[in-house]
Design a protein that fits this description.
This protein is an alpha+beta fold. 21% of the residues lie in helices and 29% in strands. The strands form four sheets. Strands 2, 5, 7, 8, 9, 10, 12 and 13 form an eight-stranded antiparallel β-sheet that branches. Strands 1-14 form a two-stranded parallel sheet.
Length: 234
């Protein structure tokens, strides 16, 4: 027994320093364990946020992929500054032609209003002008042209129609019988085409005159816009 104690005492003396070192290492290890374990327990564990997902998976995908419509501003209509189309005015000559006869106009041009006919005793339109002139007075062409017709009209008596350039036509009525021109004849402006007569049945109650009409593009126009009429000298 005494020998065992002596062996233990000798062992402790020889190995004592190692035992002390091992005890120190164990103590350090236990201290580190006590510090590390609480830190691991304090760290929050990841959990699934159930409230972040609502509805089925398809509904969630639809909510994500459905594009938000873009609201475009309503365009403002600009006013139309295009000029309105206007009727093309009928061209008139810079200088007017000489009148077919010299005299006063006793019955004017009236296609948009009615005037009273003393012969027919009624209100009516008048597609030309009546120029007072003595019987037998020479009647002249207002423009150069071609004789288109020589005829006796039931209302206006002996009538001559001349065709001119620019789609113009002039008509001379209430002439004497047997005028000195024939159809197809070409005439210069101012050429004599006939003489004032009294063959117009519809105007026989008026004083001696020439009935004169002028057409542009087959439409009756006021001869005053193209012809210079001179009054009879007093």
């Amino acid at each position: 027994m005494k020998k065992n104690k002596e062996k233990i005492t000798a062992f402790l003396k020889e190995k004592g320093i190692y035992l002390v070192l091992m005890a120190c290492v164990a103590a350090v290890g236990l201290a580190a364990a006590f510090v590390f374990v609480p830190q691991l327990q304090a760290q929050p564990q990841p959990t699934e946020d159930i409230s972040a997902v609502s509805g089925s998976e398809d509904e969630h995908l639809e909510a994500v992929t459905t594009p938000i419509p873009t609201v475009l501003p309503t365009p403002t209509l600009m006013p139309d500054f295009t000029p309105a189309a206007t009727a093309k005015p009928t061209a008139t000559p810079k200088t007017k032609a000489a009148a077919p006869v010299q005299g006063d106009i006793i019955w004017g041009f009236a296609v948009n209003e009615l005037i009273f006919s003393r012969t027919l005793e009624q209100w009516m339109t008048h597609s030309g002008v009546d120029i007072a002139s003595p019987l037998g007075s020479e009647v002249h062409a207002v423009f150069a042209g071609t004789v288109e017709r020589v005829e006796k009209d039931d209302q206006l008596g002996i009538t001559i129609t001349l065709k001119h350039a620019n789609n113009m036509v002039s008509v001379y009525a209430n002439l004497k019988e047997e005028p000195p021109v024939k159809e197809g004849q070409k005439l210069n402006a101012g050429a004599t085409i006939g003489y004032v007569g009294d063959t117009a049945v519809s105007e026989c109650a008026d004083q001696s005159h020439l009935h004169f009409e002028l057409y542009v593009d087959e439409k009756a126009v006021d001869p005053n816009a193209y012809v210079l009429f001179q009054k009879t000298p007093e």
